[in-house]
Write a structure and sequence with these properties.
Blueprint lengths: L2 E10 L2 E10 L10 E7 L6 E4 L1 H9 L3 E2 L1 H10 L1 H6 L53
Parallel strand pairs: 1-5
Antiparallel strand pairs: 1-2, 2-3, 3-4
């Protein structure tokens, strides 16, 4: 049986993410797999690449052939170098930096404008008909 290490596509139409899988070369791209050995999310910044190195080394050792895309990922994680005999192969995958908590800068003024106060309108007096003044009598 010819075994390949390849990508299995998941996700929505313009938001793909992949799993790195070991599968028979005759199965469909997203079909039945033997084992899942990693993840690849290309749309994140930086791209997320996770590979179970022990399982990748095992499958490479028993003759599984990686596709071009998976070979590039294995070179980034250092697994291909270790398979070829380089004991000092290291991962060159960029890791997302931790998010810095927000701190208020006390030197700056607030940009929020206070609500405008409404002017008090004079209250309308009770509806009493005004009688002409009868001061002359």
């Amino acid at each position: 049986m010819a075994v390949k290490i390849r990508l299995k596509r998941l996700g929505k139409i313009r938001a793909p993410y992949y799993r790195i899988v070991v599968a028979d070369s005759r199965t469909k791209r997203d079909g039945r797999v033997i084992e899942e050995i990693g993840k690849y999310h290309p749309t994140e910044e930086p791209s997320l690449i996770e590979v179970d190195s022990e399982r990748a080394q095992y499958w490479l050792g028993v003759g599984a052939q990686p596709t071009e895309q998976v070979l590039a990922l294995l070179k980034l994680t250092g697994d291909w170098g270790r398979y070829k005999g380089d004991k000092d192969a290291v991962s060159t995958v960029k890791v997302k930096a931790e998010k810095v908590p927000f701190e208020v800068d006390s030197a700056k003024k607030s940009v929020v404008k206070p609500k405008a106060e409404k002017k008090a309108e004079p209250a309308p007096e009770a509806a009493e008909p005004e009688a002409p003044a009868a001061d002359a009598e």
